[in-house]
User: Fold this.
Amino acid sequence: MSSCTLCQPFGQLLQERNAISDESLLVSVIIPTLNSSRTLAMCLRSIRQQTHKRIEFLIVDGASSDNTVEIANKCGAIVERTSIRNRSVQRNLGVLHANGELLLFVDSDEVLHPNFVEDCVRQVARERLDGLFVPTIDTGSSYFGKSRCLGDLIQISLSSEIHISNSALRFCSKRLFIDVDGYDDKLVIGEDAVLELTAIGRGFKLGRCNYPVLHYGVEGLGNILMKKFSYGKVFGKYEEKANTLDLSPKMKYIQAGFFFIKNFVKCREYTRHILGYVIVKAIEFSGLALGSFFGQFSGKS
Assistant:
């Protein structure tokens, strides 16, 4: 067991430093980028508009060929560059340059509510926590883009669970991140699950953010299929790593189809997107299954 599990939770340490207020805590927002010009300005704008003002945002760019770096510089971000195009490597590199005691990991196609960081800092400091699970809502501008969010909205209704299927441990103290050895840079899928399962296993005290992150990911059924196909090809590496960890915390949330059918009524305004949601999920599953098959096949050759 790590010696850090015997320490006080980060939030408790903060409370004992009477001179330090929530507002004085520096949060380092780390954003990996790769040809992210489509959404980066929107992402950075949402960070600049946070009600918590002590924020530094670090862009770790994986050799973009578009104007991603130019956009980051114009928005006043600290920019680090690497030739390695790997989200885990980029995030770990960002932490090396981070000055904040608290870390927030955001992707370049995501948008935050203005009170997001303030709420996270307050929870960690006042509830004596080491980190927070952050729920994500997949959305977009097209019909199928908007259809993707239906399942995420239903998952968020599981308010009694801090860890739901569309969430990840993305707000945490730097000492938690260092104790779990950061993200596994050998993984390109499931790296967040491995990090959070390790944190749970080492006894860190965790909560759940009250505000979801809006994710404006790829749209179009063909693009969704190819993205999941690429993930499926490397899923075996994540599965191998996950088998060495205790997966029971990951399985707390309800996955049964009946749960979703029962709770569709909570999202009446999305009624016309139910068919789209079913189609998108079928495409995602097909992409993962095909990718996994080809990954296993190529691994044997």
